Amino acid sequence: MLTTRIQLGVNIDHIATLRQARGTRYPDPVQAALLAEEAGADGITLHLREDRRHIQERDVELIAAVLNTRMNLEMAVTEEMIALAERLRPADVCLVPEKREELTTEGGLDVIAGRDAIAAACRRLASVGCRVSLFIDPEPDQIAAAQAVGAPVIELHTGAYAEAQGDARGVEYARLAAAAELASELGLVVNAGHGLHYHNVEAIAAIPGIHELNIGHSIIARALFVGLKEAVVEMKRLMVAGQEAGLVAQLESYDEDHDHDH
Ligand SMILES: CC(=O)[C@@H](O)[C@H](O)COP(=O)(O)O
Ligand SMILES: NCC(=O)COP(=O)(O)O
Questions:
Q1: How far from chain centre, in Å, is Cα 102?
Q2: What is the ipTM of this complex?
């Protein structure tokens, strides 16, 4: 079993949310990106929303210029955003659905309905060296469509899992695990994110095949009390512990299956 260590993409959107609340120059997401990297983030995620409610174009440009790791730019499938990504060429572009009235990203991208536009965006972005990820719900049809449009990566939307209570949480977890398995079988790199926090992340990190988690709101919130570096370190520690627990469980179930064979 060959597994690489799970990666953490720290989403710094909500540093910008705080800045925009007062129209000040602080706190600066550029400073946050560099601190998160120093603390062990494997990449920096930021979402340039069309309504510019948090991240601004200036943030994307400056962070692209100073980052030592990878930028994962989340954006809608629009001509304006594709042209920006073609100019700045972030290592990763994650295509997401957007609604101006939503509080946060409510669901995954409908790759089936938007097939032609998404396929064209994937081609354009790949031609300038960006690795394209599609932010989708854990649905088999959407995963198959993601592969069909030529995206090498998917990010499974974990919002429904994060919000679910009681038995529903187990149902959402099983959907994510099944989706990760199917996508891995299809040769896609499988990331996940949205709504993950210090109390629900370990189980997600334990899912076989999960390559990277993108986490923002909970890390920035925790940073208020322990500082950004400590908040990143703590999150990464939980993710690695979760991945290790998942690997042990996989080995145990492999051994059990083979004991039955003898
Ligand atoms: C696509 C996604 O999940 C992230 O962009 C996250 O939603 C943070 O940004 P918002 O809080 O603006 O949705
Ligand atoms: N794509 C998910 C992401 O970047 C972070 O989402 P959240 O942790 O802020 O909910």
A1: 19
A2: 0.95
